[in-house]
Write a structure and sequence with these properties.
alpha/beta, 5-stranded parallel beta sheet, 12 helices, single chain, 448 residues, 21% strand, globular
Length: 448
């Protein structure tokens, strides 16, 4: 007579916020799968639902609270983790039904809470054989062909508008040999693009005193952004650097882009350009030097794409400050720009600064900035018409259409390359594309 094995509990996941949170979600689900749990794609099939929250801005907190409320209404058995875990009392006061609340990257605590809420039935057949993927990879929440690679947690900066250090602590870097082992496994399992993330990628290894660690195949690698990037670039996948704080040593990464080891792409959160505003933000305030460095980077790697984010309506920002920022953007001609209107965040030092900017002024400045950067983007993309670019395919249909990204485009946040007359393309393919047209954000082309 056949033995009927007990059905394992199923876990649902709602993951909010930045890619760093997404990596946390992947690690949590991977550990739960190894412990015998199955994943549920919907509320109805889940024995317990995890909500991985974002708490960076008040609007993000409200989105997280709405997600918790929806999960409770749809399922009823909810565990909360992530950045808003620091505000457990607020969450439990609003949603007393929540089973447990844990903080950001507290993997063992959230896994323990799941074990308490939905224990795996004991089985002599399964208890010593944890369920794992056949290929040995972690469970992924991104497509197979690209993966986020987190290299550190926390941040040592104390920007006046930010509470990330309070949520995630000071910088804690991973060992470079461990990062490279993870990257090698990802590439072996089909990853064609590694997206390097952290709170401050430029500071990587500072807490480890940039020590050298032995590599499995011989040699060693230092806990340093440049050394790590060089080694990642030898794995055969695209390597894209995110959240790069503009320290002077970032200049050493640019030659790696010229050599083709790292994508010619930098995600640098400049935040503003006006020196008085930058000082109030507790950010580097030498805008002229930043422009000189951008010119130097472009001289070494002419195709470098620079993405950045900016805050409008920061306390004390005058019309002159904003015009200074607009003039700076006109000269810098960044490739990709995002912006957000300043929001007071509970616990941020900026909340006590004088000179609050009225909401209608924030909106007007935001609209002006986005119109300027859209024009610059359209001009820069128009200059690519007639060129042939490498494009990584994200999706393809059965009638000859496909979408992908050039080296200048990160997934989810940047533009796309939309293709016609394709045949046999699969996600993860890297193809040469003749660019035929462009708009403010996207390129259009055909396989070359």
């Amino acid at each position: 007579m056949a033995t009927t094995l007990p059905s394992p509990p199923k876990v649902g996941m709602v993951s909010l916020g930045c890619p760093k949170n997404l990596v946390d979600s992947e690690r949590i689900l991977t550990k739960l799968r190894a412990d015998g749990y199955q994943m549920s794609p919907d509320y109805a099939g889940a024995d317990v639902v995890l909500v991985n929250t974002c708490g960076f801005l008040d609007s993000a907190k409200e989105e997280s609270l709405e997600a918790i409320g929806e999960a409770i209404a749809e399922n009823g058995r909810v565990i909360v983790t992530g950045c808003m875990g620091k505000e457990a009392e607020l969450i439990q006061a609003r949603f007393p039904q929540v089973l447990a609340v844990t903080g950001a990257h507290q993997y063992e605590q959230v896994v323990g809470a799941v074990h308490d809420a939905a224990p795996v039935p004991p089985s002599a057949y399964l208890d010593l054989v944890p369920q794992a993927r056949d290929d040995g990879r972690d469970l992924k929440l991104t497509p197979r062909h690209y993966s986020y690679l987190k290299i550190s947690e926390g941040c040592n900066h104390r920007c006046s508008f930010c509470i990330i250090p309070a949520l995630r602590g000071d910088l804690v870097s991973r060992r470079p040999d461990a990062i490279l082992r993870e990257a090698e496994k990802l590439v072996a399992a089909g990853t064609r693009e590694l997206l390097v993330i952290s709170q401050d990628t430029s500071a990587y290894g500072l807490d480890l005193r940039h020590a050298a660690y032995p590599l499995k195949g011989g040699g060693e690698v230092r806990a340093d952004m440049t050394d790590l990037a060089r080694n990642l670039g030898q794995l055969g996948a695209w390597v894209r650097l995110h959240y790069v704080y503009p320290y002077p040593h970032v200049d050493r990464v640019i030659p790696l882009m010229a050599e083709g080891l790292v994508l010619p792409y930098l995600d640098i959160p400049f935040q503003h350009a006006s020196p008085p505003v930058l000082r109030a933000m507790k950010r580097p305030a030498n805008d002229a030097k930043a422009l000189d460095r951008i010119r130097g980077w472009r001289a070494i790697a002419p195709d470098i794409a620079i993405r950045s984010t900016f805050v409008v309506g920061f306390p004390g920002e005058t019309e002159d400050d904003f015009r200074y920022l607009m003039d700076w953007l006109e000269e810098a001609r960044l490739d990709r720009v995002g912006a957000f209107r300043f929001e007071p965040v509970e616990g941020a030092a900026a909340n006590t600064l004088p000179g609050a900017v009225p909401e209608e002024v924030k909106e007007e400045r935001y609209a002006r900035l986005m119109a300027l950067t859209a024009r610059i983007s359209a001009e820069k993309l128009a200059a690519k018409v007639g060129r042939t670019l490498d494009v990584i395919i994200d999706a393809a249909d059965a009638v000859g259409g496909a979408s992908g990204r050039s080296m200048a485009d990160a997934p989810e946040i940047d533009g796309e390359v939309l293709l016609r007359d394709t045949s046999g393309l699969q996600p993860g393919n890297v193809v040469r594309v003749l660019i035929e047209d462009a708009d403010e954000h996207d390129l259009f082309g055909v396989p070359a």
